[in-house]
Design a protein that fits this description.
Rossmann fold; 14 strands; globular
Length: 407
């Protein structure tokens, strides 16, 4: 097991809920935290027809084209992106049409929609101003942006990464482009479908990468990235699409662009970032209904604690959190002397603090390949001096066709 897996430290977040004292308020019903939708994927881009600046829900590629026209060309790849989304397991998406290539106004149309994953077909890392605006919107929505690099060789495309500034922990970049009907298409739409499929089948905390992340609906990749290029992508925080022959094209990474600069795993890895956002949104939504309760009521504090604990316990039982026992997987505190001072109570402030030990991506695990031939294992381990450890053990599991356990 990697050194930083030995003593997982819960991720701490504090949620402050203002309280207003009202006399004769009846006892609060038990707090129930309803999990908000984990996968609300939105596409914003230019197309032929349809309402402008209005989020429209589509549940199939045919429905999208009926509302927004074909838009199947290299200059306006929205139609291809939505097609690939549904081809890879997407079930529903929000689509916002823009009249031109500027997507900023279209992003504002997503306010209040609950968007969790944002895709901007036609916008790449070289569109610095629009990417900056998109990441600001993603941060406001507690969403992530699936970002495309410019079409072309990795050596040329990587030069634009430096222009991505604030909120890099909310940007996940993918390369190279894919080929559909002889046309080069940016890959983010396909990756969005893989993410939707993974969320539905395995959970938002699972990595949409590796053996279960085949990319469908494409003829291939626009370029074959060699080992050196793959290592360079990984070190730059870019996720490679890799062709494994008979296994098909796989999404090969779950890093954010912050992976090169930040140490916190929840900032470095997309599933951890998304799970943290999901829990925080769900808890805050439940607590929002309590702003007019008596902030000094100990029964209120107890009900908040038990409600958040029940929600986190459900995630732990589903496998989203580390720890053999609940006490090592999460904690919740709310009360005088724990999270609040006497002055906080006098001011009508209710403060609840929760923490959780999020299960880290499988690329953290060092695989012990039991039952495989020594020859194959030696061949994979022979690359240890030339490639990064994370990449190495993902490659070992790709070779053996399964995820193995280890320490």
């Amino acid at each position: 097991m990697a050194p930083d897996d030995e003593n997982p430290v819960p991720t701490r977040k504090a949620v402050r809920t203002p309280g207003v004292y009202i006399e004769d308020v009846p006892r609060l019903a038990a707090l129930h935290i309803e999990a908000l939708p984990r996968t609300v994927i939105a596409f914003v881009g230019e197309c032929n027809e349809g309402p402008v600046g209005e989020p429209v829900t589509v549940t199939s590629a045919a429905e999208h084209h009926a509302r927004f026209g074909p838009s199947l060309d290299a200059r306006r790849p929205l139609g291809h992106a939505v097609d690939l989304f549904f081809a890879n397991g997407g079930a529903s998406a929000l689509v916002v049409r823009t009249e031109g290539p500027d997507v900023v106004e279209g992003m504002h149309a997503l306010d209040g929609t609950g968007c969790t994953v944002l895709v901007l077909p036609g916008i790449t890392t070289e569109d610095t101003e629009q990417v900056t605006e998109a990441l600001a919107s993603a941060s406001a929505y507690s969403a992530v942006l699936l970002l495309d690099l410019p079409h072309g060789p990795w050596e040329a495309a990587q030069g634009h990464l430096a222009g991505v500034g604030a909120h890099r922990e909310r940007a996940a970049a993918y390369h190279p482009w894919v080929v559909v009907d002889g046309v080069a298409v940016p890959p983010a739409g396909a990756v969005a479908g893989v993410i939707a499929r993974t969320d539905r089948e395995r959970g938002v905390w699972k990595a949409a990468a590796g053996q279960n992340a085949q990319v469908h609906g494409i003829a291939g990749l626009t370029e074959e990235v060699d080992r050196g290029g793959g290592e360079a992508m990984m070190l730059a925080g870019v996720n490679e699409l890799r062709d494994f022959g008979e296994q098909g094209v796989l999404v090969w990474g779950v890093r954010t662009l912050a992976a090169t600069a930040l140490a916190e795993p929840q900032q470095r890895y997309l599933p951890m970032r998304r799970l943290l956002d999901h829990v925080q949104r769900s808890v805050q939504e439940a607590l929002a209904g309590m702003v007019f309760e008596d902030g000094g009521d100990e029964d209120l504090w107890l009900r908040i604690r038990s409600g958040v604990e029940a929600f986190l316990d459900g995630l732990w039982r589903a496998g989203a959190l580390q720890g053999q026992q609940p006490r090592s997987a999460y904690y919740v505190q709310c009360g005088l002397g724990q999270t609040m001072t006497a002055q906080d109570v006098a001011n009508g402030q209710v403060i609840v603090e929760w923490g959780m030990a999020i299960s880290r991506p499988a690329e953290f695990a060092v695989s012990r390949c039991i039952g495989e031939t020594e020859k194959n294992l030696d061949r994979v381990l022979g690359h240890a001096r030339r490639v990064d450890r994370v990449l190495l053990f993902d490659e070992a599991d790709a070779l053996f066709g399964r995820r193995t356990e280890g320490d």
